[in-house]
Amino acid sequence: MDAPEPPLHWTPDEFRRHGHEAVEWVARYLETIEGRPVVSDVEPGWVRSQLPPSPPEAGEPFGDLLADLDRIVAPALSHWQHPGWFAFFPTGASGPSVLADLVSSGLGVQGMLWSTSPAVTELETHVLDWMAELLGLPDRFRSDGPGGGVIEDSASGATLCALLAARWRAAGHGPFDRLRVYTSSQAHSSVEKAVRIAGLHPDQLRLVDVDDAFAARPDSLAALMAADRDAGLVPCFVVANLGSTSSTALDAVGALADVCAEHGAWLHVDGAHAGAHLLLPELRWIGEGLDRADSFCMNPHKRLLTNFDCDCFWVADRGPLVAALSVLPEYLRNAASESGAVIDYRDWQVPLGRRFRALKLWFVLRAYGAEGLRRHVRTQTALAQELAARLADDPRFELAAPHPVDLVCFRHVGGDEPTEALLEALNATGRVFLTHTRLADRFTIRVSVGTQATEARHVDELWALIDDLGGRSQGPHGGPAGPGTP
Ligand code: PLP
Predict the structure, then answer these.
(1) What pTM does this model have?
(2) Residue 248 in contact with ligand 1 by CB distance below 6 A
(3) What is the pLDDT at residue 450?
(4) Which of 244, 270, 448 to mutate to test the pocket of ligand 1 (most atoms within 8 A of CB)?
(5) Residue 477, pLDDT score
(6) Please, which residues bridge with residue 238 across strands?
(7) I want to staple 304 with a disulfide (CB 3.0 to 4.6 A). Which of 134, 300, 366, 418 is the partner?
(8) Cβ–Cβ under 8 Å, residues 263 and 235
(9) Predicted pLDDT of residue 144
(10) pLDDT tens across 361-380, in order?
(11) Strand residues in 355-475 grouped as ranges (E)
């Protein structure tokens, strides 16, 4: 008789032991992160050069895997959780959120229908109502009326779903060639991507002019829509920025809603990053006009300590969304869905399957409490405001845009060249990482403050580096000096 094969799967005890080792690895990574350069300096191809050309034929010990995390993966990471990370926008992470993702993976359930795991759907509906309450959103987004909330993978996914719902409301199955979409020049690239995915031609997207604060001008939207209507076209969908990516510009949502109402267009508000600041009573004003939006999204996976991916997306009327996305094959029919008493979130998103993402938002909300989350957002916002004040007070620099929340955009008064050189010099220190944008066609440094680990001392260090590398206020010929000028 052949010898019995060794067990294929880990026993519960092996899982427990290796689980402790993996958690220990992550804890040690986070404990030591501050000592690492913020971004990796490996050459392209280095990671692949460390990997064998073919997969292992025999299973390997778990310890070898963890060792390769240290040897191959960690050196080639950009450390998004580093306290010196001031680039893009933060990507949320926190202990409770990481552990919720672990639990979600451990459960291994799939929540495409209510009946495939009622807890996945109902917890999600409930935490989205909690979030609506915490952010002070209008009642129309709560699940006890025609509207409600869902967790999408990303703000890009939310904008796409909103466009598909708007497209359905305006034209059903089509044709779509007369539909027109509007957003400002400051909108995130995901709007243009959604237009393409929805099968519209890029010319069907109109760019609304912005004012000096980079906010969409309602009169420009009104003029574009009127011209389109007069030409026999159909204004269908508008995306307003509640905090643009470049500079957290805030569109006047209420005034844009007036224009949309005149044309029956769907108004989607993209609050991917700045939407989290609605948590703070003193910043509630940034949501002015949301009570007239058709949909709104914000990303807990940015400022709200929740691991990627977690975008909260609310609609005032779920009808067009579900109508646009529901396809019902025989193998998904079930009594609960047919009763009409349950939500099937597969009809609120592009894929069929869905992970138990509500778990991490639930863990974060319960572990921090509303008070803890407000404290986090308030602290990072205050740090950004202090940095803005220092920059505004220094004649070498100028602020490039209003800074209502936790993003500060600035440049060297000497122009693009010294600004670009300053950014390069800052990043070359390995202590901080910042990115740039162009505002009013001028090179601009963005400081997005900060990660869960960023404290006042880290922003002080950033300021010391800017001060040191930003040059003297007067150059040798009376003009502003370039970065690095002693
Ligand atoms: N919208 C805005 C305003 C953003 O700033 C971003 C990303 O930074 C996005 C959309 C895209 O976010 P996601 O990565 O969730 O698709």
Answers:
(1) 0.95
(2) no
(3) 83
(4) 270
(5) 40
(6) 182, 267
(7) 300
(8) yes
(9) 96
(10) 999 999 999 999 999 999 99
(11) 397-399, 407-412, 435-439, 442-448
